Amino acid sequence: MALIEVRDLVKEFRRPAARRGGWRDIARLFRPEYTIHRAVNHLTFSIEEGELVGFLGPNGAGKSTTIKMLTGILMPTSGHLSVAGLHPARQRRLHARQIGVLFGQKTQLWWDIPTIESLRALKAIYGVPDEIWRRNLDLFRELLALHEFEHVPVRQLSLGQRMRADLAAALLHDPKILFLDEPTIGVDVLAKERLRTFIREINRDRKVTVLLTTHDMGDIEKLCSRVMIIDRGTLLYDGPTEALKQTFGGLRTLVIDVEGEGLQPPREIFSPEVRETFGIASVEWNGSRVTLSFDPRKTAVSDLIAAAAERLPVRDLLVEDVAIEEVVRSIYLHSEQIRATDSGGAAARQGAGRETG
Ligand SMILES: Nc1ncnc2c1ncn2[C@@H]1O[C@H](COP(=O)(O)OP(=O)(O)OP(=O)(O)O)[C@@H](O)[C@H]1O
Ligand SMILES: [Mg+2]
């Protein structure tokens, strides 16, 4: 059995119905009316011990709701859920000892007392032995530079410092699994780098399994070999981050610099026939620079480079990768189609290289 097993997970929220005016509003004083909103819709996935999985989706997709169910904060409406053998909400106290949680939007620490005192209080709550406490504190001071601000009350910390303090709090009791909901939100590039390094090391050295929600594709590219993408509560993709580009990636770009300053190579070189043959989608000329965009599924880069070298006095070449940012943007934009077509689901499963049924 996988460390985290989620099958057909559903979470519905009741929302007060829109006001319609007239006698209905009076009637509602006695019998409130609600509409049901399904935030998580038959979600199925599993995560093995030691994985570091990225969890993506547009605003309102159901990521935080899923994490709240996995951490036992919310009770699922229906479906099967098991985290390291426990049902998070039903065995909440036991569960709390095996997981660490960070919600980037909201601190778990006490606002008014020095950071180190907050951590000490958590040590007592979790019953962390002195030896582990000292070892972890050393680690947090080294990797998160906790010592720089540990005597400052949380309310006075910068966002990046607060995130580091919260990360320390989440890991104080040596949890097996770490749930991170937007740990880099609003954090500057340097602090982001430090957080990423820390998350990577915790995963690699301590074998902590991590589920990471973020809107920052840099986090995903730098940390996660696997990514799950959800929208409107359903899974659009689950598989290797690399395969995402192959499955949903758009065009790649070949930039060619030709010999000679300001030389204008004849435009006919890439005639419609040549474009057709080599799967070139567009050609841009700019002085001595030619930029070709092409579909990597139709053309091998090597063929394209050979074709260019035959026709142009090539001085320099650069193949630009598909930006993952673009890929994800297009998945969000076309999520309706991906959901509707069989191939979308098939792509998700194929990319995953595992059966999710
Ligand atoms: N307590 C609640 N009561 C009613 N509706 C809720 C509640 N919590 C979340 N929702 C709704 O459920 C949907 C999913 O919300 P959720 O917070 O899980 O999204 P998210 O993927 O984390 O988005 P974001 O990227 O903005 O953080 C949203 O439509 C939200 O309005
Ligand atoms: Mg959220």
In short:
The chain is α/β, with parallel strands linked by helices. It is built from 14 helices and 13 strands. The protein folds into two domains: 4-224, Rossmann fold; 251-320, Alpha-Beta Plaits.
N to C succession of SSEs: EHEEHEHEHHHEHEHEEHEHEEHEHHH
Number of helices: 14
Helix content: 25-40%
Q: How would you write the strand order of the largest sheet?
A: 5-6-7-3-8-9
* Ligands bound, unique: adenosine-5'-triphosphate, magnesium ion
Annotated CATH homologous superfamily of the largest domain: P-loop containing nucleotide triphosphate hydrolases
User: Could you please say which CATH topology of the largest domain applies here?
Assistant: Rossmann fold
The proportion of strand residues reads 25-35%
Counting helices, strands and paired strands, the structural category is alpha/beta
Describe what this molecule looks like in 3D.
- Helix 5 (130-144) packs antiparallel against helix 6 (159-171).
- With 357 residues, the protein is an alpha/beta fold.
- It starts with a strand and ends in a 5-residue tail after the last helix.
- It has 14 helices and 13 strands.
- 34% of the residues are buried.
- The strands form 3 sheets. It has a 6-stranded mixed beta sheet, sandwiched between helices. Strands 11-12-10-13 form a 4-stranded antiparallel beta sheet. Strands 2-1-4 form a 3-stranded antiparallel beta sheet.
- It has helices at residues 23-30, 63-70, 92-98, 115-126, 130-144, 159-171, 189-205, 217-223, 241-248, 272-278, 301-311, 324-333, 335-340, 342-352; strands at residues 4-16, 34-47, 52-56, 78-83, 99-103, 177-181, 209-213, 226-231, 234-240, 252-258, 280-286, 289-294, 314-320.
